[in-house]
């Protein structure tokens, strides 16, 4: 295994990990990186690997919230306290919010990958992402975890489904939808990333069959391990950084970035 291959996979792992949590579209940026740097498409195995690393990072960051939801959600069947009821309903809304992306991904996933993954398309969708972030940049909602409803879950779930298109940021789309529905920034962020868990976990499970049928070559062990670790660490610190930005309400900077990159891609490609 040559040094260049190791560096390439490590770079892509870190790059994917850093861009996954923030609202600039990790999938879109991976396509752009491969196009402009002349990096060959690493394949489905690699995508599953680095997305799983990002999933582990989200689980680590939100471990206390996840544990509380599990304990109180199960506790609701024994004792219907306000806390148990709130967290049980939150779990239900997470399930509802997962359905649109799951259905659309299964039905139209191949079509999206085949027809909506060009560099020009990503430039256009980055402009859409930037515009959406700009429109909600000053919103300050009032809804907490216990104030969500089925309509909120469906709308945010549909936004996550739209983000199956490369260049539409998953975190950006769900946060935009959540804040447009009147959620506080902290609630929007928490719901967005807890909603990421079942979708990412589902992708991981669906990919296991492919990994078993076509396992990676033994020579790729070191690049894959480094890419996984790079993505895990980058995702963790990127998410922690983004959480601080959300508290300060500085989404406009991501809007500027997406608009500028999207326009440059559309103009010069």
UniProtKB/TrEMBL annotation:
<keyword id="KW-1003">Cell membrane</keyword>
<dbReference type="GO" id="GO:0050380">
    <property type="term" value="F:undecaprenyl-diphosphatase activity"/>
</dbReference>
<keyword id="KW-0961">Cell wall biogenesis/degradation</keyword>
<dbReference type="GO" id="GO:0046677">
    <property type="term" value="P:response to antibiotic"/>
</dbReference>
<dbReference type="InterPro" id="IPR003824">
    <property type="entry name" value="UppP"/>
</dbReference>
<feature type="transmembrane region" description="Helical">
    <location>
        <begin position="115"/>
        <end position="136"/>
    </location>
</feature>
<comment type="function">
    <text>Catalyzes the dephosphorylation of undecaprenyl diphosphate (UPP). Confers resistance to bacitracin.</text>
</comment>
<keyword id="KW-0378">Hydrolase</keyword>
<keyword id="KW-1133">Transmembrane helix</keyword>
<keyword id="KW-0046">Antibiotic resistance</keyword>
<dbReference type="GO" id="GO:0071555">
    <property type="term" value="P:cell wall organization"/>
</dbReference>
<keyword id="KW-0133">Cell shape</keyword>
<comment type="similarity">
    <text>Belongs to the UppP family.</text>
</comment>
<dbReference type="Pfam" id="PF02673">
    <property type="entry name" value="BacA"/>
</dbReference>
<protein>
    <recommendedName>
        <fullName>Undecaprenyl-diphosphatase</fullName>
        <ecNumber>3.6.1.27</ecNumber>
    </recommendedName>
</protein>
<keyword id="KW-0812">Transmembrane</keyword>
<dbReference type="GO" id="GO:0005886">
    <property type="term" value="C:plasma membrane"/>
</dbReference>
<feature type="transmembrane region" description="Helical">
    <location>
        <begin position="251"/>
        <end position="268"/>
    </location>
</feature>
<feature type="transmembrane region" description="Helical">
    <location>
        <begin position="90"/>
        <end position="109"/>
    </location>
</feature>
<feature type="transmembrane region" description="Helical">
    <location>
        <begin position="188"/>
        <end position="208"/>
    </location>
</feature>
<dbReference type="GO" id="GO:0009252">
    <property type="term" value="P:peptidoglycan biosynthetic process"/>
</dbReference>
<keyword id="KW-0573">Peptidoglycan synthesis</keyword>
<keyword id="KW-0472">Membrane</keyword>
<dbReference type="GO" id="GO:0008360">
    <property type="term" value="P:regulation of cell shape"/>
</dbReference>
<feature type="transmembrane region" description="Helical">
    <location>
        <begin position="220"/>
        <end position="239"/>
    </location>
</feature>
């Amino acid at each position: 295994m040559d040094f260049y291959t190791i560096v390439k996979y490590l770079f892509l792992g870190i790059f994917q990990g850093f861009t996954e949590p923030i609202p600039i579209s990790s999938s879109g940026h991976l396509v752009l990186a491969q196009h402009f740097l002349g990096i060959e498409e690493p394949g489905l195995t690699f995508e599953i690997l680095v997305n799983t690393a990002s999933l582990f990072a989200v689980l680590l960051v939100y471990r206390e919230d996840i544990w509380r939801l599990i304990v109180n959600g199960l506790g609701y069947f024994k004792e219907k306290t306000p806390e148990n009821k709130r967290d049980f309903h939150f779990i239900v809304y997470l399930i509802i919010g997962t359905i649109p992306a799951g259905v659309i991904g299964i039905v139209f996933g191949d079509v999206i990958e085949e027809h909506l993954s060009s560099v020009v398309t990503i430039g256009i969708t980055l402009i859409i992402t930037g515009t959406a972030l700009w429109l909600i940049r000053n919103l300050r909602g009032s809804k907490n975890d216990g104030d969500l409803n089925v309509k909120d879950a469906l709308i945010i779930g549909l936004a996550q489904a739209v983000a199956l298109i490369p260049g539409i940021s998953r975190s950006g789309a769900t946060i935009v939808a959540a804040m447009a529905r009147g959620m506080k920034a902290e609630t929007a962020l928490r719901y967005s990333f807890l909603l990421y868990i079942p979708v990412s976990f589902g992708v991981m499970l669906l990919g296991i069959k492919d990994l078993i049928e076509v396992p990676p070559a033994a020579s790729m062990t070191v690049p894959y391990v480094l890419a996984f670790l790079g993505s895990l660490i980058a995702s963790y610190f990127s998410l922690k950084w983004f959480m601080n930005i959300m508290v300060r309400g500085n989404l406009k900077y991501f809007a500027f970035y997406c608009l500028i990159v999207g326009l440059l891609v559309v103009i010069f490609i």
